[in-house]
Amino acid sequence: MLPEQQNLNQTMLDTNQLASFKQVTQDLSPLQLAWASGYLAAKAEGISAVAVPAATANATASTLTILYGSQTGNAKGVAKSLAAQATAEGLTVELKSMGEIKPKAIKNISHLLIVASTNGEGEAPDDAIALHEYLSSKKAPNLEHLHYSVLALGDTSYEYFCQTGKDFDEYLAKLGAKRITERVDCDVDYDADVSSWSETIIKEAKILLDTDTSTSNVVSLPNVGAAEDQYNKQNPYSAELLLSQKITGRDSAKDVRHVEIDLGESGISYQAGDALGVWFENSNTLVDELISTLAFDAGALINIAEQGFTLAEALKTKYEITQTSINFVEFWGKLSNAEHLLTILDDKSALREYAANHQVIDVVKSAPLTGEAILEPQMFVDALRKITPRLYSIASAQSEAEEEVHLTVGLVEYQINDTKRQGGASGFLAHGLEEGGEVKVFIEHNDNFRLPSDSETPVIMIGPGTGVAPFRAFMQEREATDSAGDNWLFFGDQTFTQDFLYQVEWQNYLKSGLLTKIDLAFSRDQSEKIYVQDRLQENASEVFAWLERGAHVYVCGDMSRMAKDVEATLLNIIATQGKLSEEQASTYLKDLRNAKRYQKDVY
After folding, report:
1. Fewest 10 Å CB contacts: which of 68, 79, 181, 544?
2. Residue 481 neighbours by CB under 8 Å, 6+ apart
3. If DSSP codes are grouped into helix, strand and coil, which group holds residue 547?
4. Which of the two residues, 92 and 119, has the higher pLDDT score?
């Protein structure tokens, strides 16, 4: 880097230093001035490009654009890592969320990598919706000049596995774009696939871009853009569990916990709307039961990424045994030759349902191996998924909780025959970890679930059950910032006396005036079941009036039924109260979503 350019990195444009800045720049060539202006613009906007070419005339053609569509942060994390690897190889990179570009700008891109997760049942993440819809519309341009590749993230336990990535791949191909490499579809345990794809795609991109990585052609800017958080999914912080307190009543059918975790001196920061990633350990009881059922030696050595572990250690800390993948059901069905498993292998819907409702131990016990089957410990664990962290919506604002982070955790618990099963992370936080124990955590930032920037903007919060968690954080944040905007909460659960989560807090907010309005739906307190969408419909006129005066709407909780029912109700309210057609109501809601006035955090 030229000395003059190094000076630019350190120059602050205040009155005293303006003369120095002019002196530095007067000797720069037009090319260097163009570089400097682009660099300073990138610094101002936090753009993650970390290398620029020595010529700007072909900047677009020589740039590798990486766009990500991310709901919970996985695709964003993969894209940022990919960008870092690409720039380290001398490529010029522009990294952006799909929500940060205008869909029409796709025609100006020549080399594109897409990293896209799939939200819910085959839906695009919020930040990818506009581009997703544009590329499938009649307005989409011819893209014969575009070279691209897609990395799709998904979960095989869902019917529409990696659907968003598949859609982007299909849309771009139909528009004439040329694949650099074939699309790769990744399951939740995606590290190995991502690493392989990243290595391949960077090599191919370098060939296509014909990049000259010598210092005469590339100026490296290794520190441009926001630094990676010190603690993340790969490097979590070892925090202390301060509290795991049951907040549902003694006679409740649910065990919901208020969990408090101490972030200590980590310096970790979060915003209302973010999620906490929790790495958990499987229970010793479940591990022992599985090893005993398989008649394995707990001390048998297991190799994981060229590291040695005992079988007991591996099953406790490295592998999913409270969730069953469809791949494991297929593996065990073929190994055991059990008829009840073999009959569902060709029925993907039945296979997904079976896997979702049986833990690994239950599959194993349901189909004992015959004498002919050969199974070694290494072979068994190789058929399992690696443990992945669970994400929980944060139930506190840092302005209130300071070095703590709070969660609202529903214990996953169900009966299989005479045995009670518990979820991995929820069981760990509820019963597997003593207060004062250590839990590994990280923040997953969620820019798709944020309070309005204008504190006077009204908000409507719809969060039944544990879906109320982020709205507790929202209220703490609005109180801390003296926000004047109205706040309306729709909350529901089974019974008022047993399941009204944070009841005293909501009543205090209502009494102080911070909470403008609250509507409750307790489904089992009367003969006819009432849900939050019913309360929305009852308040249709006022809900629409709030929308018309700029309210933001937030939905958190179950995506399979609640979120769909709420959206259908909102569409009905918009159509009837606004006297709009079904198509016009759909457009109205779509406009709210595009303006980030309709945001969902569903799971």
Report:
1. 181
2. 399, 455
3. helix
4. 92
Interatomic CA distance for residues 63 and 58, integer angstroms = 9
The rounded distance, in Å, linking the Cα atoms of 427 and 164 is: 32
What share of the chain has pLDDT > 90, as a percent?
77
- Enter the CATH code of domain 284-382: 1.20.990.10
Fold agreement between 46-220 and 459-602: yes
**For residues 554 and 126, what is the distance between their CA atoms, to the nearest angstrom?**
13
Which two three-digit tokens encode residue 477?
A: 């944040």
* Percent of residues in the chain assigned helix, strand, coil, to nearest 5: 40, 20, 40
- CA dist 15 to 25, 461, 552, Å? 16, 47, 42
- Homologous superfamily of 237-279+389-444: Translation factors (2.40.30.10)
CATH classification for the domain delimited by 459-602, as one of 3.40.50.80, 3.40.50.300, 2.30.30.280, 3.30.930.10: 3.40.50.80
DSSP code per residue over 279-329: E----HHHHHHHHHHHT--TT-EEEETTEEEEHHHHHHHTB--SS--HHHH
Give the integer Cα–Cα distance in Å for 128 and 423.
31
- Among 191, 193, 119, 187, CA closest to 327: 187
Q: Is this prediction's pTM over 0.90?
A: no
Residue the block writes with tokens 């840092």: 398
Residue 219 near residue 35, CB atoms below 8 Å: yes
- Span 47-88, pLDDT tens digits: 344 333 333 334 456 899 999 999 888 899 999 999 999 999
Class of domain 46-220: alpha beta
pLDDT value at residue 141: 95
Tokens representing 378 are 């290494």
**Per-residue confidence band for 420, with pLDDT thresholds at 50, 70 and 90:** confident
Place of tokens 């345990």: 189
* Domain regions of the chain by residue span: 46-220, 237-279+389-444, 284-382, 459-602
Strands 390-393 and 275-279: antiparallel
Rounded Cα gap, residues 335 and 286, in angstroms: 22
State the Cα–Cα distance between residues 22 and 146, nearest whole angstrom: 40
In contact, 531 and 562? CB cutoff 8 Å: yes
Kind of pairing between the strands at 51-53 and 218-220: antiparallel
